[in-house]
Design goal:
The chain has about 170 residues and is mostly helical. The protein has helices spanning about 5-10, 15-30, 40-60, 65-80, 85-110, 130-145, 160-165.
C-alpha cells in the first residue's frame, strides 16, 4: 500500500494493508455498498458484521488455529469500522479514493458515454489532507478527459470546492 510521504512515516503501512484486505473480505460477500446505493449506514454495518462473523467465526473458527486468527481479523475489521485510529481513517480515505478511480476508469472505458459524476461527491467525506490532494489530482484528470466532449459531466463542481478546501 502506498501513502503520501508525509503520512507514510506516521502510519503502520503493513497494518493498513491488512486492514484494507480484511475490509474487502466483508465486501466480498455483501458487495461494495456505495453512497448512491441508499443503504442506511446501520444496515450496511449489520450486513458487513454478519459477513465478518461468518468468515472469521464460522469458517476460521472450525480449525484449531483458526479461532485466534479469526478473532484477530474481527478486531482489525472493527478498528476499520470505528475509524478512530489514523490507520483506519487512512484506509477509509483510500477506499473512497478508489471509488473515484473506478469512476474514471468506467467513464474512459465507455468513451464519455457514461457519466458517473454522482460518485464524485465522496470526496466530501475524505478526512486526511494528503488524500484530498490525491483526489484533486484524479478530479483534475477527469476534468481534462471531459474537456473535449460534447457535454460536461455531472458534479464538475466537486473539484473547485475540493481545491478551495485545500488552501
Amino acid at each position: 500500500m502506498l501513502a503520501p510521504e508525509s503520512l507514510a512515516s506516521t502510519l503502520n503501512i503493513p497494518h493498513c494493508t491488512k486492514m484494507a484486505l480484511v475490509h474487502d473480505m466483508a465486501e466480498s460477500l455483501v458487495g461494495d455498498i456505495t453512497p448512491v446505493d441508499n443503504v442506511p449506514t446501520a444496515e450496511k454495518h449489520r450486513r458487513e458484521a454478519e459477513s465478518m462473523e461468518f468468515l472469521a467465526g464460522t469458517l476460521l473458527g472450525k480449525s484449531s488455529r483458526g479461532y485466534d486468527q479469526g478473532q484477530g481479523l474481527k478486531e482489525i475489521w472493527q478498528e476499520y469500522e470505528d475509524s478512530k485510529t489514523k490507520e483506519a481513517i487512512f484506509v477509509h480515505d483510500v477506499d473512497k479514493m478508489e471509488l473515484l478511480l473506478q469512476m474514471m476508469e468506467y467513464e474512459r472505458r465507455h468513451k464519455a458515454q457514461l457519466d458517473l459524476g454522482e460518485f464524485a461527491g465522496v470526496v466530501r467525506r475524505i478526512q486526511l489532507e494528503e488524500v484530498k490532494v490525491w483526489c484533486a489530482e484524479i478530479l483534475k484528470e477527469r476534468a481534462e478527459f471531459w474537456k473535449g466532449m460534447e457535454h460536461q459531466p455531472s458534479r464538475s463542481d466537486v473539484l473547485p470546492k475540493l481545491l478551495e478546501s485545500l488552501k
